[in-house]
Amino acid sequence: MNDNETTAPGESGALVSATPGGVVAQSQADAVDRFENPGLPPHVHRLADDDESAAKRAERQVATMFGLSMLGALVFLVAYFVVPDESTFYFPGIGIASTQNVVLGVSLGISILMIGLGAVHWAKTLMPDTEVVEERHLQASSPEDRAKAVASVSKGGEAAQLPRRPLIKYTLGGALGLFALPLGLQVAGSLGPTDVEELKTTIWDPSYNDGKPIRLMRDPEMTPIKLEDVTNGSVFHVMPETLQKFIDEGKHVLEAKAKAAVILIRLDPELIKVQKARDWGVDGTVAYSKICTHVGCAVGLYEQQTHHLLCPCHQSTFDLTEDCTVIFGPAKRPLPQLKIQVDDAGYLVAPQGFDQPVGPSFWERLR
């Protein structure tokens, strides 16, 4: 307190600090002012609260939404097995789209949307909406309080009118049950091929080029690569020449690219320690799958000094001098090598496809 401040007892006995400009503070040690409880506003009844016909109408509306959800799930299940994978159509603003993908996406979206809308409409029209106030209490509850909580939940189910509205109960159960089937079907049947031979087959296979070797093309320019273009330490992102056929036809282009992505690198041949890797390359120029054997990210980072390839997703590291064996990270097997040669015109070509599956190693667990 400075010389300009004075203190005096307030009306309630609390000390008041004053300055020449007036009162600035009042101690609340002995006088605690409480805000007056404003209470709850009057409850406004909904039409369905007082009119049973309105409640019945709301019940039918909710059940209709759940029924539409079931219909969407059924359309999904039928389309999954009936619509051909190769079927396409022109979608305005997008271009060529897969008929199956569009039907599956729309039907699954409608199914989950109708469940959500039905639940919201049910809550807004039939579930209790009275305002309640509950005082905070200690986290640890007594057995009696827990029993009361269970009773409260049971009472809530009755308040939500489940016993009185069996139509909602049964359609909700049907909607949730059917909606789980498309999700299970997607998980069980759409996580990828289970046939190892299918994983080994990419558009590097000469069968896609009338049995002839396939030229290596720059990605995305799709121009051929001559051996003389690949200098020591250079890196090329490569696609097979056969990709152009898929682009022209507009079928499975992304799937073909995902399996066929290759990285082409040239280093001193004397640094390559594995004879097979030397034999499958040309003068130190080697080609490997870009798809990480961990979870399928693109391996595109090359450390020229250490000759390591790095996956940016989870830091799996592959030693290019050791036939891309794993030296760090979660990947469990080397990157598959693509055998390359030089044709009569000096261009790099692949005389055969991969001799092992590309991408994540989950297929090994199927054996």
TrEMBL record:
Keyword presence, Repeat: no
* Localization annotation: Cell membrane
How does the UniProt record describe the way this protein sits in the membrane?
Answer: Multi-pass membrane protein
Question: Which keywords does this chain's UniProt record carry?
Answer: 2Fe-2S, Cell membrane, Disulfide bond, Electron transport, Iron, Iron-sulfur, Membrane, Metal-binding, Oxidoreductase, Respiratory chain, Transmembrane, Transmembrane helix, Transport
Q: Which Pfam families match?
A: QcrA_N (PF19297), Rieske (PF00355)
Q: Name one GO molecular function term.
A: 2 iron, 2 sulfur cluster binding
Which protein is depicted?
A: Cytochrome bc1 complex Rieske iron-sulfur subunit
Organism whose genome encodes this protein: Humibacillus xanthopallidus
Taxonomic lineage: Bacteria, Bacillati, Actinomycetota, Actinomycetes, Micrococcales
